[in-house]
Amino acid sequence: MYVQTVLGKIPSDQLGVCACHEHLYVDLSRIKKDEDTRLQDLETVIDDLQLFKMLGGKSIIEVTNDGMGRDVTKLQEISRKLDLHIVASTGCYKDPFIPDGKLTWNRDQLAEWMLTEIEDGIEDTGIKPGVIGEIGSSLNEFKPIEIEMFYGAVEAAKQSGLPLSTHTTLGTCALEQVELFQKENLPLNQVIIGHQDLNTSDETVLEVLAGGAFVALDTIGKTNYRSDEDRLASLITFIENGFEDQILLSSDLTRKSHLSAFGGQGYDVVLRTFIPALRQKGMNETVINKLLVKNPQKAFSIRTKG
Questions:
Q1: What residue ranges do the domains of the chain occupy?
Q2: Per residue in 155-175, pLDDT tens?
Q3: Thinking of the domain 2-299, which architecture would CATH place it in?
Q4: pLDDT, tens digit, for every residue of 45-86?
Q5: Would 97 disulfide with which of 73, 93, 150, 268, CB 3.0-4.6 Å?
Q6: From CA 217, how far away is CA 248, in angstroms rounded?
């Protein structure tokens, strides 16, 4: 089993402590009209990632895709400077972030484009993506182009074996995403349903987990949405219900103000505060190792076809 990083394939067991959903070079300002959402200062990002590394971080799944300011050459630069495994993404995010040129594409065109990136590399870089993501639905609905993107992503995942990582706006439409994947016969253990720490219905998340998908609690430290204490309580509920093998953790930094240098939570927030809080609740190291190491190994390994 292996994972495709920006520097090439690595055996899955080399992934180590892994943040499952991050942005290291991203620009959402075209839509958000806010310069804070242009996170493209490599030096400051690298300084922040040093803190993640100091606490044992080894790998980042970087889900910035086409339309979000993706530049995989910058990811390769960060990877080399820090000796950090970084996995790049193919696909598009959600409406209205999808590039104008792809707004009229259908699922077949989108699938073909993603598969070309997977097989030949992103644009003319030769750098191959290791995940299809983050593929997003809107708040409580799928916009028409998002439906096409999801079906295109499913086809690309089936043909390539790459994991498919999703965005759910404020945690909504998680079950609807699962139903779409089930209907299309995409194995749920190839899917990571995102932002489920923003889904305050534990019952719904438990239903997603019961379907077999990985679930990402990946906005840790964003306390403007929900307190980390509440996230912790939900996580413990999921573990107590037997789903410790399907949960992933991350912090989803997208703004300059999220970096430690500007008073934000930093890329190390999961390792610095959340995991110690989990230990204080009595969680054992075997489970913690699954959340940080074993589960990402499984989730981001490329499936062999056939």
A1: 2-299
A2: 999 999 999 999 999 999 999
A3: Alpha-Beta Barrel (3.20)
A4: 999 999 999 999 999 999 999 999 999 999 999 999 999 999
A5: 93
A6: 6
